[in-house]
Specification:
two-stranded antiparallel ribbon, 0% strand, EXOC6/Sec15_C_dom1, exocytosis, 808 residues, single chain, EXOC6_Sec15_N, mainly alpha, 2 strands, 28 helices, EXOC6/Sec15, Exocyst complex component
């Protein structure tokens, strides 16, 4: 490239061009050789251009130039060498004089140091002997120390102090074994030390195996003890709730009484607190026997020994596998006993197992990890849930379910104190809530049927105050706060307190099942099943009884009285369920529904109405003896009404002893209404072909006697109730008033008819009017006259009947 650029700038002659190119190549080659570069490019270029001779020429030129440089360099160094040789020759004389001086000094030193060397040899010999003696003494001391450690190790082995024995053996092995001068003793120790360690391992393993056997029995007792303490604590809570409910019920007492009650509760709380502190005061040390009564010393000793032997991980694995096998064996249920008999032992064994594991986790120094305990617990709770599911699904007795549920809930409370999650167990209990209540309803259905079957439906006699308290006050079905005189005849029969006890027991069992099951507010659930018990079980049982077994007025009246008492009892049931569920009573008032036994109540009253109507019909048949074409009106009432009034007076005197006023009012209202319908029906019926005004006036007297009977009941009923009773006779009264009226045409006036004759039917009035035969000028005398001269009576009556037909 450089030659090309030069050719572009200068155009020399051919000879000059060749010389300049050769010089340049020679210069480049010299620079490359001096720098140690590769000459391959030059060689290729020479052969490529066909001029290798030029390259050889340049190489020879470079060689000649370097030979001259080497020659000049050697000449310069040769001169320096000659100068150095001349300097050395000048030093030879000085060296000879120094040599002779050193020889004289050596001779003098040899003569002086000879005796000293002899003394030094003696000293070295003595020092060697001393060192040998000291070594012997050191070895003797080491042997003595070794023998002492061996003796101490034997003593510890004999006394069972394996840890100290191992420490002695470790010290012998680490500090003295290699320094032992006796090969025989060393071989013996090397053989015995592994045997000693193996023997210690076997002994502590045997102790650990014995502990594994013992801890199973201890765990069962421990679980029973802890669950028993949880049960006692729960009972104390229940007692406290009872006292609180009693305090609420007695809130109307004086301040002094209330203060006394509160002080009593504080004292009880103090006692309870002391017991709780004793229960919680357990030994938290790593070993030893605490208040819970189980000893972990063999376990921790075995663990410590294995740590000392360097077998910690192996022992941890061995311990976990054995405990896991024990837990698996605890899951096995005996086929020889029922689950009801063995469930307490089953759950107590598992509870004790995990209480022990919790103690080991907290004090075992890493013997078992929290993850291992959690894995064991997951296995255990899964197995317990499956066992519960299996046996609950096969149980057909509510009481058995409740017993097992209570124990499982106590198990949950116990293990929750130690940090174990028990929600899965509570979910199983909640899952079988419906089945339990169905079984409970079935049991109550049988008990209620038996109670109703045994009832003779006679008023219950109570001779003592405790009977009154047990059968009346305990269910709050009394009508007065004043304690009656004894003997006391209650308005209800014996089935009422029996059924109340059954319902109360149902409520308590339901609350007991729902309590401590993980659900805090369970009143609505208890209320739902209580409503089912009342509306499905008790109501249906009463309906069946009413439809099949009631055949007399006294029985029907007693059942109606029982229904009235049950209305008060149902209020008590709701309040009792609320109190047991921890709900304030005023909260229950908001969701108050209709009377759950309304079907049975209505059926009982309908049955009573029907029987009374049959009785009344037996007396009203005497209406056939009435003289419907009497020459004179009667003044003392017809025979039938006198018989009916006598019967009604007897009925009222009996019914007011057991029936509440509102029920008695409904009964009389139905009976009077039936009497009214009977009178109207007799007038409209085929048995009465015709009648006159005198007969109607006699019927008017009959109705007045019935109204007078109602007025005589003023001491029982309020004025409004008495008026309502009179309205039961409204149809007959309005009909008689119409027939005795001088202005019968007012019946056709809609306003007057709505006000005075609203109970009358056009057809009945028309039918009855057609039977009227009146020879007087009084009845229908002015009908249709409108100021003209009067029509004959027959024409007036026909016009009246025609108008009625037209309107109807």
């Amino acid at each position: 490239m450089h030659s090309t650029k030069l050719r572009r700038k200068v155009v020399p002659a051919n000879g000059d061009l060749d010389n300049s190119a050769d010089k340049q190549d020679q210069l480049l080659l010299s620079v490359a050789i001096c720098n140690g570069e590769d000459l391959g490019s030059f060689v290729r270029k020479a052969f490529a251009s066909g001029k290798p001779e030029t390259l050889l020429h340049n190489l020879r030129h470079f060689s000649r130039s370097k030979e001259s440089e080497i020659e000049e360099f050697c000449k310069a160094h040769y001169q320096d060498f000659n100068l150095a040789v001349d300097d050395l020759r000048s030093l030879l004389s000085d060296v000879d004089s120094l040599k002779s001086s050193l020889s004289d000094s050596n001779s003098k030193l040899q003569s002086v140091a000879g005796p000293l060397l002899t003394v030094l040899d003696s000293y070295i010999e003595v020092q060697t002997v001393s060192r040998n003696v000291n070594l012997a003494l050191t070895l003797i001391v080491s042997c003595i120390k070794l023998m002492e450690l061996c003796s101490r190790a034997n003593h510890h082995l004999t006394s069972g102090n394996f840890y100290m024995a191992l420490k002695c053996v470790d010290m012998i092995e680490s500090e003295l074994l290699d320094k032992t001068p006796s090969s025989t003793l060393k071989r013996m120790l090397e053989k015995k030390i592994p045997e000693i360690r193996l023997n210690i391992e076997r002994k502590v393993s045997k102790e650990f195996g014995d502990w594994l056997v013992e801890i199973r029995v201890v765990s069962r007792n421990l679980g029973q003890l802890e669950i028993g303490q949880a049960s006692a604590a729960r009972q104390r809570e229940e007692d406290l709730r009872i006292k609180q409910r009693q305090a609420e019920e007695q809130s109307r007492l004086s301040v002094r009484d209330c203060v006394y009650a509160l002080q009593e509760e504080d004292d009880d709380d103090g006692i309870n607190g002391g017991i709780g502190d004793d229960v919680k005061d357990v030994d938290t040390s790593g070993s030893g026997r605490g208040l819970l009564g189980f000893d972990l010393t063999p376990l921790y000793r075995a663990y410590h020994i294995h740590q000392t032997l360097g077998l910690e991980d192996r022992f941890k694995k061995y311990y976990f596998e054995n405990r896991k096998l024990q837990l698996t064996s605890d899951f096995q249920l005996s086929s020889m006993t029922s689950f009801l008999e063995s469930h307490q032992t089953f759950f107590a064994q598992i509870a004790g197992f995990f209480i022990v594991e919790d103690r080991i986790l907290r004090t075992g120094g890493g013997l078992i990890s929290r993850m291992d305990v959690e894995n064991l617990w997951e296995t255990a709770i899964s197995k317990m849930c499956s066992v519960l599911e299996d046996h609950f699904s096969r149980m057909q007795t509510a009481n058995h379910l409740l017993l097992i549920k209570d124990y499982v809930s106590l198990l949950g409370v116990t293990l929750r104190r130690y940090g174990y999650p028990v929600d899965a167990l509570l979910d199983v209990l909640s899952k079988h809530r419906d089945k339990y209540h169905e079984l409970l309803l079935s049991d109550c259905r049988k008990q209620i049927a038996e109670a109703l079957h045994a009832d003779k439906f006679e008023q219950m006699l109570m001779k003592k105050e405790y009977e009154y308290s047990m059968n009346v006050l305990s269910f709050q079905i009394q009508t007065s706060d004043i304690v009656p005189a004894f003997p006391y005849v209650a308005p209800f029969s014996s089935s009422i307190p029996d059924c109340c006890r059954i319902v109360r027991s149902f409520i308590e069992d339901s609350v007991s099942f729902m309590s401590y099951g993980g659900q805090l507010d369970f009143f609505d659930v208890v209320k739902k099943y209580l409503d089912r018990l009342l509306s499905e079980v008790l109501d249906e049982a009463l309906l069946k009884l009413i439809n099949r077994s009631v055949h007399g007025v006294s029985q029907a009246m007693q059942i109606s009285a029982n229904m009235a008492v049950m209305e008060r009892a149902c209020d008590f049931f709701v309040h009792h369920a609320a109190q047991l569920s921890g709900i304030r009573l005023r909260m229950t008032e908001r969701g108050r529904k209709q009377f759950p036994l309304n079907r049975a109540r209505d059926a009982a009253e309908e049955m009573l109405y029907g029987l009374l109507k049959q009785k009344v019909d037996g007396f009203t048949t005497l209406i056939e003896n009435v003289n419907w074409m009497a020459d004179e009106p009667g003044h003392s009432g017809n025979e039938y009404v006198n018989e009916v009034i006598i019967y009604l007076e007897t009925l009222v005197s009996t019914a007011q002893q057991i029936l509440p006023v509102h029920v008695l009012k409904r009964v009389l209202q139905e009976v009077l209404s039936h009497i009214s319908e009977t009178i109207v029906g007799a007038l409209a019926g085929d048995s009465v072909k015709r009648f006159n005004v005198n007969a109607i006036m006699g019927i008017d007297v009959d109705i007045r006697l019935l109204e007078s009977f109602v007025d005589n009941l003023a001491s029982l009923f309020s004025e409004g109730d008495a008026n309502q009773l009179k309205t039961a006779l409204a149809e007959a009264r309005q009909l008689i008033n119409l027939l005795l009226s001088n202005n019968a045409e007012n019946f056709l006036n809609a306003v007057i008819r709505e006000r005075s004759y609203n109970m009358l039917d056009f057809r009945k009035v028309m039918t009855i009017s057609e039977k009227l035969r009146d020879p007087s000028d009084r009845l229908f005398g002015t009908f249709g006259s409108r100021g003209a001269r009067q029509n004959p009576k027959k024409k007036s009556l026909d016009a009246w009947i025609k108008r009625l037909k037209d309107v109807s």
